[in-house]
Protein 1
Amino acid sequence: MKSSSARGQRLDPVDSDQFTETGTETEGLPRRDREILGFERQWWKYAGAKEQAIRELFDMSATRYYQVLNGLIDRPDALAFDPMLVKRLRRLRASRQRQRSARRLGIELER
């Protein structure tokens, strides 16, 4: 196992091909947005590791990253770029919003 990054491998922000390998047309979707979507395809065992990688790769706080991601998944060009990922991220967001609303209202949701 290599050491250096939070996941055990060094992720190089210059090598964006590691995040943008899809067969779809990428016109209209800026490079940073493609890299963010590619980054979201990865699975993280620990939230802290992902947040550290966000700071290293995108030079932004985790809060800002999630604000950018939230806006990105609402865009039609992001949906065209990676439909399965964007739909999954939208479902996760909607689920979290329902859970937050239920907590505020004191309602228990069925799982």
Note: The radius of gyration is 16 Å.
Protein 2
Amino acid sequence: GKRTTSMDDQRKTFRYRVCGFGNHVEQKTVKFVERLGDLHTCSWCGVVPAYTICLPCYHVVCEECMNDADKAAVTVCWIDKQNLGTGRTVTSRLRKFIGVKIVHCTNVDSGCDYTGRLESVDNHLRESCAWYFMECFKCGESVVYKHLVNHLKTCKGVAGVLLRPEDGQSLLDDIRNASTELQQASTSTTSEVRDALGMLTAQLESIRRQLEVNSEGREDNVALNECNQ
């Protein structure tokens, strides 16, 4: 018989994987309140990118796919096999257009009822989402991300390395640089490696937040050292 379209099927049609709109939403599937056009998604992998590359054959691709294609001896479109050469145009206009599209939180299926601009979701996850959890690297408990800093201040798990303020700042700078390098590396690797890099980026962010807590509470650390002596 004729197949009817269920509400669940309709919801799925508006779900897109995104990249370039913040670390906490990077390569995650986001539910949009409206369907996006073909020109807003990568013709090759289906991701919604912040930056697109228009090919001579009029297909639109993301930077990650383009970098993968450029590794071949001859760069061709993966759909129609047209030789691409250097005839391609990079545009950032899509970031502004897609960034203001209204979406649901990435944790909508868990119960978060937040809706807002795509460009604001990363900040929502960092600062206000009650359904965005991260495992504490000290005790292993699953903690709401926005409460992670306060949790670390009182966590009874294995203590992190106590650093002098100047050492902590240096390590923070190293972590920021490493995070930037990871993000740059993710644009030229396979999807499997990009997923692994995404996890590493999240772990670096967690360590960075711990170091900030240690830096803020260095007076408490000094007192703790004195008690242990």
Note: The chain has eight helices and ten strands.
Protein 3
Amino acid sequence: MPFKSLKSTLFEISKFKSFKSFKLYLLLNNNIPRKFASNIASKDDSLLKTKKSIKTQPLTTQKVISFVPAGTILKGINIFKNGSDPIAKLDDEYPDWLWDLLNEEKQNALKEHPYSRPALRQQRKQLIKNNNFDKSRKK
């Protein structure tokens, strides 16, 4: 694949909501080589060489499905020295929250939730400031 001009690349990036979704698009459509934990080349590299054309749609309307068929051995994903490569499951066997990880709107809504970690941290900071202020006034 020849290198694209900077202008065309910036135009492509502007079509996406974030740079993270653009990188995901590149991984799925342009087959950018990825580094795996194993340094031994697998015998069956056909999965890495195939190009899949997935039409991109906004993340809110597109139902996310796995692009690897069930039962496929996912070579090179193992992170343990003596472990074996995992086998892909059916989409129904994965938890529902897994498919929401790529949805930026749902992730942002979780961050803004009043019981999320950043919100609770902010509340604790404010409580400490109020308590310190009250202690300084009593003296």
Note: The chain has two domains: 6-102, 103-139.
Protein 4
Amino acid sequence: GELSAADAAVREASDVLVRHANSTRYEQVRTPARQQIRELPASALPEHAAKWAEAFAPRLRVLTDELEQLERNRDSIVDRLRGLVESSLATLRSAQRLSRLPEGLGEWSGQEFLRIRFEEPDQATLAERLGEVVDEATRAAVKKNSDLRRDGMSLLLRGVQAALEPKGVSVEILKPDAVLRAERVPVGQMGDVFSGGQLLTAAIALYCTMAALRSNDRGRDKHRHAGTLFLDNPIGRANATYLLELQRAVSDALGVQLLYTTGLFDTTALAEFPLVIRLRNDADLRAGLKYISVEEHLRPGLPRTEPEGEAIHGEITATRMFRRHASDDPAPTDAA
């Protein structure tokens, strides 16, 4: 009875070993031991068991150490990715905070131009989700035909997306109108409900917000100047006075200087600007250069700052000028 039970146990163990060796997980394994296990009769397997166990023991230790090292590396990558994701979520919160509008804009006064809402997961859930993102990228690296991008930015974006599951992120923006009602519109609906001028105004406000955010990230939050934005003929799309006023008020609040260029002589729109300069195309045929030069100042300057006067939208604090001197061509020199 005991012998029969022992024989049955050996046969069961042999069957388990053969099934293990035949598993599709190990199709790429080409070791002699696997080949022998698959081809030898079940009755011959026990006599090789001790030899295989002795040969596999050191290899098992090496593989176990390598797997533990890989797991530590994975944990390190997940931890680093988690830090970047948390920094990105903090950037979203800062974008909303920095988009706060100044006073004097009716219902818009003190409102945040951007409203960004999302739910942050706890640390354990975030680590689990980011681990899945890293594992997916690793599997894609093994597949030859995978089209999953594995650059750093793509990985970070997938990490942020995973962190905000299942609801994702909700972004709403104030809709510019003549009376400045505090009406918010989801960004996905902007193309349906915004006019061309409203879209342009929203785009300018978003740019100013991003410029202020970049300045804040660089530790320059105490310096109001966040850069200059050249606008290519925006008056053609947004010539309504309230849109121009709103663009300049938002840019002034966020420290961005707007420079408008236009070929339209719209006196109503131009009257909104404290400084208007007419330019003309010019060229230096000898040097093969094309440039623009000042034709005249239609409005010759910005208003002076009065101690108790109205707030102005900007002032020129520095200039750079290049003067081209008229001179004859130098006389030719004799060749040696």
Note: Residues 332-336 have pLDDT under 50 and may be disordered.
